[in-house]
Design the sequence.
């Protein structure tokens, strides 16, 4: 194992998840839902805390692992979270309740993101977290940048897509989508972008202009 791989493994195993998040992760595994890794979750919490987020929108509820991490960093924030799978959202709702999060802090929207996002208000959120259908990632990021205020941040999970984005031999549609997203955002003057290798990649985009 290379030094970089050892460092990555160490960073992933460095995080100790709070009990409520660890329990939600167990439920996620049982349901076959791919949740953010502990190290990715910890970065979400730090970003939410550092930005003083009070309004967060999430595309892809899962069973609440990422939402719990975001709210651990911004415990007074209101989280709006969208997912097509109502069963998963019910599991997430229980996870939020078990973690002691007030019902008024979480707004669960059941529906297809491509149908829901166009109805969401512009420049309303401090953070938009995208962790849903990778085939639609560019569309979701465009909505995310529309929905966050100036100075707000869009966070995209799986930006290195299973380690495939960095491999030039991989050319499937999902890999192409992520490469296009990375290329376009890194060249844009409208955002500040950073790519973290944690998990299988977190792309951070802070909106600098409308």
Sequence:
């Amino acid at each position: 194992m290379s030094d970089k791989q050892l460092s990555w493994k160490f960073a992933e195993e460095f995080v100790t998840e709070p009990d409520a998040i660890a329990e939600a992760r167990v439920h996620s595994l049982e349901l076959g839902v791919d949740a953010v890794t502990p190290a990715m979750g910890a970065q979400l919490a730090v970003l939410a805390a550092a930005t003083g987020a009070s309004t967060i929108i999430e595309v892809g509820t899962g069973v609440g692992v990422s939402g719990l991490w975001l709210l651990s960093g911004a415990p007074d924030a209101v989280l709006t979270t969208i997912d097509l799978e109502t069963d998963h959202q019910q599991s997430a709702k229980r996870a939020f309740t078990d973690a002691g999060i007030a019902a008024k802090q979480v707004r669960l929207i059941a529906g297809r993101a491509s149908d829901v996002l166009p109805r969401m208000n512009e420049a309303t959120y401090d953070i938009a977290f995208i962790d849903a259908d990778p085939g639609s990632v560019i569309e979701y990021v465009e909505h995310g940048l529309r929905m966050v205020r100036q100075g707000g941040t869009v966070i995209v999970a799986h930006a290195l897509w299973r380690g495939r984005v960095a491999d030039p031999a991989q050319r499937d549609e999902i890999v192409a989508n992520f490469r296009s997203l990375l290329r376009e955002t890194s060249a844009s003057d409208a955002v500040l972008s950073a790519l973290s290798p944690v998990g299988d990649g977190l792309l951070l985009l802070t909106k600098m202009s409308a």
About this structure: The radius of gyration is 16 Å. The mean pLDDT is 96. The chain has one domain: 3-207.
